[in-house]
Amino acid sequence: MQLFLNATSPYARLARIILLEKGLAGDVTLRWCDPWADDQALLDVNPAGRIPALVTNDGTTLSESMLIAVYLDSISPSVPMMPPSRLADVMHLAGLGQNLMDAAFTTVIARKHHGPEIDQSELGRRRQRAMQRIIEQLGSELNESQLTPSMTLGEIAIAVALDYLAFRLPEVNWKEEHPALRKWHGVVIARDSFQQTAFV
Predict the structure, then answer these.
(1) Which end of the chain is more exposed for a tag (fewer CB within 10 A), N or C?
(2) Cβ-proximal residues to 71 (8 Å cutoff; 6+ apart), any chain
(3) In terms of Cα–Cα distance, which of 46, 44, 40 is closest to 12?
(4) Are 57 and 1 within 8 A, CB to CB?
(5) Which residue, 86, 148, 154, 81, is CA-closest to 162?
(6) Contact 107, 124 (CB under 8 A)
(7) Using CA atoms, how far apart are residues 155 and 46, in angstroms rounded to an integer?
């Protein structure tokens, strides 16, 4: 298999963490690329030019980090990241993580192309409010006593999103305002899969 990615995308990092957690990293060639440069190899596997993109062993191309995660979970014999007995809860957390990631990533990209004043636009303010609401909800729902040795897709998505906030939007000061969430996050990111894929 091949995984197209870069080092600063939270979506690519999610896919890479799944590979490591599922014990599939040795089966995948990492194809580092710049999605903003219309990299032809990436466009050949994902005409949208977005990462991550996965090419399976039979040549099927997959895009979107959550769909790639579901596929990788399905082909690994290890403990499922979406256990049927907890499916609704896992998908609930995965949705919160995806929404937080989307709001943060879109904020970063909007600032890159339009400057920091874009935060004062209606869409910019809407993204800021969404991030605050999601963090508030996560702060009330998560604590370190809930964690088990095997990670779920929802937990990984949330931890990646929170890490991306700390990396790109440190002014969103969730760690001081939500100490229980900070402790939960600290336990998750201590895992080897997170350490190997840290944002740079």
Answers:
(1) C
(2) 54, 56, 62
(3) 46
(4) yes
(5) 154
(6) yes
(7) 27
pLDDT in tens, the chain (200 residues): 999 999 999 999 999 999 999 999 999 999 999 999 999 999 999 999 999 999 999 999 999 999 999 999 999 999 999 999 999 999 999 999 999 999 999 999 999 999 999 999 999 999 999 999 999 999 999 988 888 888 999 999 999 999 999 999 999 999 999 999 999 999 999 999 999 999 98
DSSP assignment of 56-116: -TTS-EEESHHHHHHHHHHH--S--SS-GGGHHHHHHHHHHHHHHHHHHHHHHHHHHHH-G
* Length of the chain counted residue by residue: 200
**Residue in 198, 173, 176 with CA at minimum distance from that of residue 188:** 198
Q: Which residues face 31 on adjacent strands?
A: 4
Q: Which pTM does this prediction carry?
A: 0.96
The string of DSSP codes covering 8-26 is S-HHHHHHHHHHHHTT-GG
Instruction: Pick the closest to residue 63 from 113, 100, 106, 14 (CA basis).
Output: 14
With residue 32 as reference, give the H or E element that holds it. Answer: strand 29-32
Within 13 Å and on the Cβ side, how many CA atoms surround 57?
Answer: 6
